[in-house]
Amino acid sequence: MTEPVITTLLDTDLYKYTMMQAVLHQHPAAEVEYRFRCRTPNVDFSACFNDISREIDHLCTLQLSDDELNYLAGLDYIKPDFIHFLRLFRLDRRFVHLECVNGRLELSIRGPWLHTILFEVPLLAIISEVYCRHHYPKPNWEQARARTQHKMDLLAPAEGFRFSDFGTRRRFSARWQQEVVQTLAAGLPTQFSGTSNLALSRLIDRPPMGTMAHEFLQAFQALGPRLIDSQKAALDAWVSEYRGRLGIALTDVVGMDAFLQDFDLYYAKLFDGLRHDSGDPVIWTEKALAHYRKLKIDPNGKRLVYSDSLTVSKALELYQRFAGQCRPAFGIGTHLTNDVTNTPPLSMVIKMTRCNGQAVAKLSDSPGKAMCEDAGYLAYLSQVFGVQPTAVNKN
Questions:
Q1: DSSP state of 323
Q2: Angle at 37 between CA 34 and CA 38, to 5 degrees
Q3: Which residues form a coiled coil (predicted)?
Q4: Measured between alpha carbons, how far apart are the two ends of the chain, in Å?
Q5: Residue 65: which of 118, 18, 9, 125 has the closest Cα?
């Protein structure tokens, strides 16, 4: 019998738990909606649908063990009351709405933010792995391992280069991600900083990597006092929760230019750095460096994290260009954990679309990555922040 895709609630990214803790303490009654979208055209999920549904059923039977809770409690930013909450926590299947319509996977998650926030990463990992099982039942593991070794050979000479695995959501399989992470940890002990996956961080005994995701800033479009102040409200909430820890801020929810308008001297001194997740990374970096210098902050003391569809070669190019001007680091995802076949992996996301009944949006710095269900709201958001609306995906 095939092992379930998800066997522990730690098989997810750190930032889901860090955001969840902030939600518990600050917005436990917030209601949200998320929607799935497959960006890869003409994908037929009909043959996978029943297996995906069964995997979600299994996911909702899992609870954290005492050993797993003790591991989380050992992270110095995780608080005792959150551990007590997690001791009783299970994902609720009633919050997940799943259909297959003419081969298209229709998936939404609706319910309390506190009780739905952990769904995103394991659901995407389930969809990815089940799809791969159906379409690539006999992968060429020798070829896949050779590709991993080639990446390691490229990185080995770059002694100052630092990167992490961010590949849980769209991995080929859980077992393959584990093998890749263990191989990198053993073969590149200096360059490989670790992984965002909590279960694998525990396995290789490295600190988990990550801070916040888009949904945290998106939610404050509905939770904050005024829309124009939503980014500052989200950053303030983060600072209140973590008091200087986990200090990498995400910049592209309404675009880098609008973010920098809010990211004043106070935040620039308080946060350790910024994360890039859309748009041209060179232009983004030049804007970040100029902003720090304008504020009379030496960017050499700031961490700039790149995480947008990176390959090893692309990451090395960015490192060679900007090392010495800042502290670059790289979160590489699918290129590490789903470079198995000769076919590109599925491009798919689950994003928050509503909070407390109000539409929320991610504008992004890349055309095609924006998501919003309400064109009127998107236009209003763009007007408030003085940015041009990008192409929007409504599903």
A1: B
A2: 155
A3: none
A4: 34
A5: 9
Q: How far apart are CA 149 and CA 269, in angstroms?
A: 39
For residues 273 and 305, the answer to whether their CB atoms sit within 8 Å is yes
Under a CB-based contact definition with an 8 Å cutoff, are residues 92 and 59 in contact?
no
* Residue-level pLDDT at 224: 84
Is pLDDT at 392 greater than 60 in this prediction? no
* Structure-token pair, residue 353: 């679309």
pLDDT value of residue 391: 47
Q: How many CB atoms lie within 10 A of CB 291?
A: 19
Distances from the Cα of 250 to the Cα of 158, 230, 272, angstroms:
26, 13, 12
Quick check: 242 and 74 in contact, CB under 8 A?
A: no
Compute CA distances 363 → 205, 228, 236, 267, whole Å: 37, 14, 21, 22
- Contact between 274 and 305 (Cβ < 8 Å): yes
Residue from 35, 34, 36, 30 nearest 113 by CA: 30
* Phi, psi of 10, deg, nearest 5: -85, -10
Point out which residues pair with 33 in neighbouring strands: 110, 354
Percent of the chain as helix, strand, coil, to the nearest 5: 45, 15, 35
Give 333's Cβ-side CA count (13 Å radius).
22
Lookup result for tokens 């389930």: 126
Residue type, 85: F
